[in-house]
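RETRY 2/3 - previous attempt timed out on the joint model. Re-submitting the same 637-residue input unchanged.
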Amino acid sequence: MRPQTDTATTASVQTGSEPLLDIANLNVYYGESHILRDVDMGVASGKMVCLIGRNGVGKTTLLKTIMGLLAPRAGAVRLGGESITRLTPDRRAKLGIGYVPQGREIIPRLTVKENLILGLEARPKGALKTTEIPEEIFELFPVLKTMLSRMGGDLSGGQQQQLSIARALMGKPRLLVLDEPTEGIQPSIILEIEAAVRKIVTTTGMSVLLVEQHLHFVRQADWYYAMQKGGIVASGPTHELSNEVIQKFLAV
Amino acid sequence: MDALLEAFFNGISIGAVLLLAALGLAIVFGLMGVINMAHGEFMMLGAYTTSVVQNTFKPLGEPLSGLYIFFALIAAFIVTALLGVVLERGVIRFLYGRPLETLLATWGVSLILQQFVRSISWVMVLNIGLFCFLFFGAQAILSRRPNFERIRGWFVIIMIPLSAAIALIVGNITGSIFQLAVTRPWFGAQNVNVAAPIWLRGRLPLGGYQLPYARLFIIVLTIVCVIGIYWFLNKSAWGLRIRSVTQNRSMSACLGIPTQTVDMLTFAIGSGLAGIAGCAVALLGPVGPNTGQNFIVDTFMVVVVGGVGKLVGSIVAAMTIGMANYIIGSYALKPIVGGIPALDNFFNFFSDPSMAKVLVFILIVTFLQFKPAGMFPQKGRTVDA
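RETRY 2/3 succeeded.
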């Protein structure tokens, strides 16, 4: 194991406690091209952390590595103090990471209800026996209630995004990872999604790691990390986000 | 009327055998996209299992031994499903997404299995068992060492020849001590005969036509299997997981679905169905090491004509091909077209089983020119039952 870095300190600035997610010295390659360079970051429990940066700086790559879809060449990913660097995505999901990927990735030829039920797989006792969708899901996303028997692939982009978040929440994760949840979605639904995510953080104490370009949404977060050329170049509380930083790192 | 009824039932019963054989393939090829050339050999092993079970039941005396077929169905399913798991874990999982390599590798496995049933004897069982015991035993012990990943290459290079040599030597010594008792092949190269139980040997008279009970049994078995698979895929929790993994593997993993277990289970069920089909085929005639080869092309035809990934397509295609085969082969159309000399000559020419197959394949090739995705094409890249 490599020596501890100061990551724990950056994350503990957020709360003063142990971080829920702790990434240390992460290096990821696509073939021979070096995508992530010595990334150190953390997400404190119960906090909402936003990752900003222009297109192609490696934000999605970082989230995929956290989820286990990409294997790092060096570095460690820890969840709740436990190393998950070598685990497969399904094991990570069962340990409490809920993933809402870019492009939603709804299973197209399953009904909305079946998509939601699959979200239960992430619970440690992953039984699909429950056929009732908890009412909290519909309180957050009322639109889903009327569409339970529709095919996932037939929904509109905004509805799919809500379904994707709802599906991740079905597993009651400790950490919710959202990759550009507002990309290509009409403004009224962006506000709905934003409100839902904020509500999740305040009512359940779930941690959220968010990649976002939409400034209003970024401001909802407690903490930000800014990425450039595969590395973290700035971080701090979001209320300190200056216009200079915003112009440099957000594609607005 | 009788002729028509006869053509109908014969077509259905040929179609039922085809469908039963194609059902497992429809799952393995249709849902997982794996071309398993050893599918026919799994059928053959199912038939051999049936023969073994029958011989075990013989001493029980008549009314009881007639029930062997039900135990044989279960045994054939279990044997081939386990073998399917071994094949998936040992070969196919390294080749996902590489259809050409999968095709070649499974074809090699099919040749191995054909020779395997010819030459299997107690000595061979001892050889294989001892080799597995030594190799995997050593692996189990050594894998506890922290540096196992580093010495894995050396371990494989040293342990495979070592285990093989020990197993061969022990096998040869045993063979020379006990002679023929242990070296004689169980089945040999000749065909094995499976006699249908007495209660399946009669015929059900339908007007002037008599439907053999064995055929009726296969039709019922096929219906049960189709309903069972349909229920499993659409109503059970594992079916939901399978459908999810087929449509989006990486997202399914991110949801917490154990994709490797799902692959294993899908393959086990597909292979197990081949075993059941082999059990059914054994009722119709003698079974030899090459029986599987006769089926592999026909079953692929069924899956492709029906539309890959669609169970309902396989059902319709199997019945259509079965019916066409019989109608052409027996020249059942004689009363209708017999009056026209040109057509009469044409159908007469094709009216034997092998020529009928030629015409059916020509029809299939023509059909696929117009509908390359089969009768029930997929929408987009997705797959469902």
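Chain B is about 75% helix and 0% strand. Closing ticket.
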